Amino acid sequence: MSRVKQLEHRISKLGSAIVAFSGGVDSSLVAALAARALGGRALAVTAVSPALATGELEGARGVARSIGIAHEMVTTEELAREGYRRNERDRCYHCKTELYDRLGDLAEQRGYAAVVSGANADDLGDWRPGLAAAGEHGVVHPLLEAGVGKEEVRDLARALGVPSAEKPASPCLASRIPYGTEVGPSILRQIDRAELALKGLGFRVLRVRHYGELARVELAGEELPHALAQAEVVVSAVRSAGYARVEIDEKPFRSGSLNVRFASRLRRP
């Protein structure tokens, strides 16, 4: 049995499902598989909140249309949760608890048998408190169950013609805020404005890390030389979002960099 057929078979056994759908490659692959396996009994749902970067909802809508799955939105209120606002290392637990509360309620109201996510096998090697929240809500992770990692996710997405197969990861805007710094809507908007300004300059893979009045810009290795060559333009773009100081990190962007040191400590005996 091919990997696609294996995954479709697992999802088909659910009978019906809501897909927690961000429009990123992982959830898009699961949504595409659910559409193939369940047809009209599959629904992709995107959570909308101040932590969602500008353009992500429009992108998710386009992916849903392309793969042929019904798509809806729910408004989540993670900022109303003290644990989320406090922004300690379990922030994602509170965010995902809010998400899966909403999706679980929707599934119960509409008669869907399960909620599924795009978590993959590589997520087990990172600090992912959101998986604990998913476990408490009985969320199904077809990719993780099958041992499918990020590289294979992209291969399968390409094979199925999923339009987000090459999309860079785009986690919530709160991931740009160091643990211990309280999350608020004004900070999220400021980060969003700064990243939009950089995207307007043509940069594609980036993060603007928020350190109060200081913004630290991280860019992909292939884009970094171009940014350093026009540093004044880059700095000016980010300062337009309200930052007093801007630094361009001379090390290439690495996804999940704020978690790396913490996760490595957890793995020590």
Set down the secondary structure blueprint.
Elements: H1 3-12, E1 17-20, H2 25-38, E2 42-48, H3 56-67, E3 70-75, H4 82-86, H5 91-110, E4 114-116, H6 129-136, H7 142-145, H8 150-159, H9 185-200, E5 206-211, E6 214-219, H10 224-229, H11 231-239, E7 245-248, H12 257-267
Parallel strand pairs: 1-2, 1-4, 2-3, 6-7
Antiparallel strand pairs: 5-6
- Number of beta strands: 7
The spatial strand order of the largest sheet comes to 3-2-1-4
Write the element-wise H/E pattern from the N-terminal end onward.
HEHEHEHHEHHHHEEHHEH
With helices defined by DSSP (H or I, 4 residues minimum), what is the helix count? 12
Distance between the termini: 39 Å
Structural features:
single chain; 269 residues; alpha/beta; Rossmann fold; GMP Synthetase, Chain A, domain 3; 2 domains; 4-stranded parallel beta sheet; 12 helices; 7 strands; 46% helix
